[in-house]
Amino acid sequence: MSITEKAATAASIQDRVTAVLAKTPTGLLIDGQWREASDGSTFEVENPATGEVLATMASATREDAQAAMDAAANAQESWARTPARERSEILRRAFDLVQERAEDLALLMTLEMGKPVAEAMGEVKYGGEFLRWFSEEAVRDYGRYMESPEGNLRMLVTRKPVGPCLLITPWNFPLAMATRKVAPAVAAGCTMVLKPARLTPLTSQYFAALMVEAGIPAGVLNVVSSKSAGDVSEPIMADPRLRKVSFTGSTPVGKQLMKAATDNVLRTSMELGGNGPLIVFEDADLDKAVTGAMAAKMRNMGEACTAANRLLVHEDVAEEFIAKLAEKMEALTVGNGVQDGVSVGPLVEAKARDSVEEFVADAVARGAKVVVGGSRVEGPGYFFQPTLLRDVPADARAVCEEIFGPVAPVVTFTDEDEAVALANATEYGLASYVFTENISRGLRIGDRIEFGLMGLNVGVISNAAAPFGGVKQSGLGREGGAEGIAEYTSTQYIGVENPWAGVPGTGTGTPA
What we know:
alpha/beta; 7-stranded mixed beta sheet; 6-stranded mixed beta sheet
C-alpha cells in the first residue's frame, strides 16, 4: 500500500471513529431520560492502543444511583404485568438492531477495550444471541398445576419476576456481559440498574440506546456509568427494594458484594475469577489441541475469565505440542485493533500490562524458559508480546493466579491422576478444557475435575443456550440457557381448594 493509500485508509478509519462516538450517549439513563450527573462530575474513557481520550462521560453520584433505583422500583409492578409476548418482542427488536449496528458496536469495543475489530465482531454475534435466546425464553417461563397427593388441594406453582436488579458488568466483554444480564431480566419481567465498567462504558451506553429504540419502557433499564463503583453499588445494595445483584468480575469484589447482599437477603449471581486448565493427553490430536489452546488462551488477548490459564501437557507429547504452539504464537500480529491484519490488541490499561510483565518475570526467576515473546512492546499503548513459557514450576504465580493476559505457561504431567490433581489445585472452578481422542477418558475427567464448564476437544464453549458459571471461588448461579431466566424469578405456590370437594360421589372430603 502506498503512502497516499495508507493516509486515505487512516482518514477513513478516523471518520468512522468520529461518527460512532457522536452516536454514543455519554450521560446517565435514568427513568427513560439521558442526563448529566447530579453534581456535573465526569470521567474520561481512554483508548488503550494509543492512550488518547475517546470520550468524557457523566459520572454517577450516590444521588444518581438512588434516582436510578427509584425509577426501577417505580416501574417494577407495571413491567411485571406486561405480557411476556411484549417483553419478547422488545428483545427481538433489540437483537435486530444489534445486527444492524454491528459495525458500530464492534468499533466501539475495539476503541475502548483493545480487541481487534474481527474479534469484536465475534462478540457482537455472541452478545446478540442472548437477546434472541431470551426473546424466545420469555414466553416459555412455565409453571405447573397439579393435585396434591392427598387429593384435598390443587397446587398452583408459578414463577414471578424477582424484582429490581443491580447488574454490574466487567470491562473485558462490554457488550456480551450486558446482554447476558439484561436479556434474562427483561424476559423475566425485572427492572434493572446497569453499572458498566469504568474502563469500557461506551459499548454498554450504545447498547442501552438500542434498547430504548427497541421500545423498553422508561425506568425498566437504567444505566449509571461512574468513576466510582462504590458510589453506585453501595446505596443501591442498601435499598430494601432491591431484590437481586448480578456481578461479573474479580473474586475479591464478588465477596464484598456477597457480604453486602446479606443485609437485605438479596438473590446473587456471581461470575468471578478463573484459573482454567487446558489438559492435553498423549492420545490427543495435537493440531486440534493447538488450535483449541490458541482460542482458549489468546481470545481477547487472554483477558477472559474463561481463558486457559495453565496448559497441562502429557510429557510424551510436550515437545511437539510446544513447537506447534510456538509457531502459531510467533505468527500473531500485535497492534492497534482497528488496523487490518492485527490479531492481538493492547491490554486494557497500563496496570494490566505491568501485571502481566510481573507474572513472566516471576516465572523466569523460578526457572521457567521463554519460548516466544516475554516482553512489553515499547511505544504508545499497553501492548505485551504473546508469550509462551515452558518448564514452569507449580509454585509460579502464572500457575497459581489468574494471568489475564497473553501468556501461556506449560506444565507437564505423567498420567491421568496427576493431570486431575494439577487441574484441581486451585481455589477457582470456572472453565476447563480437555483434549483426548478417548471419549471415555474425557467424560471421566469431566466427572473428576471441579469446574462449572468443560470443553472436550474444543477451545471455545460459551453459548447463549448453555448455562454459564463456576464452582468454588469462581462464583455461583448460572447465566444463559434455560437456567438463565430462572435466576431472575422466584417461585410462588398457591394452594387452591379442590374444586371437587364436597361434591357427592367424588370420594373427596373437606379440604384440610
